[in-house]
Every structure is written in C-alpha cells, then in structure tokens.
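Re: [ENG-882] Designed sequences occasionally contain unexpected residues at chain ends

Forwarding the minimal case from QA. Structure tokens:
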C-alpha cells in the first residue's frame, strides 16, 4: 500500500472525503468507463463528468469516505499513479482560503481572523470551520474552496481552527455589474397592435423585470427567455421603445449580467424570431 493510499484511508476514517490527483493537481477519471476521460467530463477543468456512472466520477464529486471505493478496482490504478491527495472541504464542513503568494498572505494577516494554516508550494491555506459556496479569484491571488470544490491535502497544518467568519463569506458574494445605458435595435414594428391599451405593455414589461429579478439561478438563460418572450409579444407592432429595453437591461445587469451579455441575448432573441 503506497503512502498516498494509506493517508487517504486515514483521512476517510476521520470523515474527510478524499480523491486521488494526478500530476498537475488534476483529478483522474475514476471509473473504468471514464478512463482517459472517455465520458467528456473535462477533468482538466476540474468539473464532474457527464457519464452514466452510478455517481459522478470526477473532481470534487468523486470525493468519498467509503474505504470500499477508495481501495476498489476503479481507483486501484489511480493510486499507483497519483501525485497527490485532494479532499472536499465542504463535504467535511470546512472552508479553505487559498492564498497563492506573499501579497495574498499579507492581506489575509491584516484582514482575516487567525485560524489553522497549511503551507503550500507558493503560499498558504487558511482553514475555517464551516462550509460555504466556493469562488475563484475573489481578489488577486485568493480562491475560496469549500462546497463543490476540492483542495490538495498538504498536512494537518498548525494553529486553532476558527469558525468561518462573515468577512470570508462576503468575499464570495458576486457584486452586481454597474448598470450601463445601452443602445439596442428596437423592432420597427408595422404590424397590427394587439394590445389595445398601453396598460397591457406596461404589465408585460413589469412582469419581465420581475422574472429576471427573482431568478434564483441560470440568470443567462432566464434573461434570454425573458427577452424572447417580450419581443415575441410586443416586438412586431412598434410598441417597444428604448425606455422599455433599458428597463429590462437594468434588471439583468442588477443580477450580475454585463451589458455585452444583455446585448447578445437581445440580438439572439431577435434573430430567433426573424426580426
């Protein structure tokens, strides 16, 4: 039994979900059907595969505490080739603030509560007790690894682990893009107006704004579908104005969309409708 496998089993026995990494800190395709990435799971991008395995078999989704899986046939070759061990911090109720260089460490020491630290090749991992959403590049040289992410196991570290503070949680909150005024093509119309009253149009725009504002996920798709619906209902008779489009774009940008994404979604919706 090699050192990586022995360490992985020890971690798993303590409730830490683990997985093997190949050179370059990249996960393996961890089931026989996905050898050499046959399922298209793009392990080099560190994302779970799209295969029909009993469970996702790449990246953080493969992390497990089950010794039968760890020493099983699917991973037997992986451990022989493994260059490192990774674990799923969120799966064991932890958050890792990955500090990639000396400037990031200086910032952390000035900004974050002291906690357990682990030296890395170029910087440090600061480990907090508590899980949160993961986020990359929250500032220069700083990533957050917790739920739906993995971190290299580099040893237990030193210091007392601190409860995850709000200042770290706040780093992952996506700040909305500044609302920018944009000019987009408004259909010229010319068809017969079915609305009979401006109230119908106003209600439709208000509902579209609300649909975008209340989107809990998939904002890109929601914005496109909403633009498509608005243009389908109001785009052929000449009722839409720049003011209406500006309201819709502002709602989308408040949710984090860029002006460019809004323009593309509007243009794609017009194209889909033949306008």
């Amino acid at each position: 039994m090699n050192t990586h496998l022995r360490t992985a089993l020890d971690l798993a026995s303590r409730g830490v979900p683990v997985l093997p990494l190949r050179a370059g800190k990249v996960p393996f395709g961890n089931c026989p059907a996905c050898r050499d990435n046959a399922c298209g799971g793009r392990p080099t991008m560190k994302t779970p595969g799209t295969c029909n395995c009993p469970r996702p078999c790449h990246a953080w989704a493969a992390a497990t505490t089950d010794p039968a899986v760890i020493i099983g046939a699917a991973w037997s070759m992986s451990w022989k080739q493994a260059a490192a061990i990774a674990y799923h911090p969120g799966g064991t109720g932890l958050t890792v603030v990955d500090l990639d260089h000396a400037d990031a460490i200086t910032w952390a020491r000035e900004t974050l509560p002291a906690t357990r630290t682990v030296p890395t090749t170029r910087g440090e991992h600061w480990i907090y007790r508590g899980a949160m959403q993961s986020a990359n590049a929250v500032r220069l040289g700083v990533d957050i690894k917790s739920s739906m992410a993995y971190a290299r196991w580099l040893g237990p570290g030193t210091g007392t682990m601190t409860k995850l503070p709000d200042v770290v949680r706040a780093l992952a909150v996506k700040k909305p893009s500044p609302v920018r005024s944009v000019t987009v093509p408004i259909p010229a119309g010319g068809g017969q107006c079915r609305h009979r009253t401006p109230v119908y149009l106003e209600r439709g725009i208000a509902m579209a704004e609300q649909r975008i504002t209340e989107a809990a996920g998939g904002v890109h798709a929601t914005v496109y579908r909403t633009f498509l619906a608005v243009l389908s209902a109001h785009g052929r008779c000449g009722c839409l104005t720049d003011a209406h489009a500006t309201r819709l774009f502002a709602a989308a940008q408040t949710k984090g969309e860029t002006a460019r994404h809004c323009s593309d979604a509007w243009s794609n919706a017009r194209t889909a409708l033949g306008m």
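QA comment: On inspection the terminal residues look reasonable. Residues 137 and 143 are 5 Å apart (CA to CA). Proposing we downgrade this to a documentation issue.
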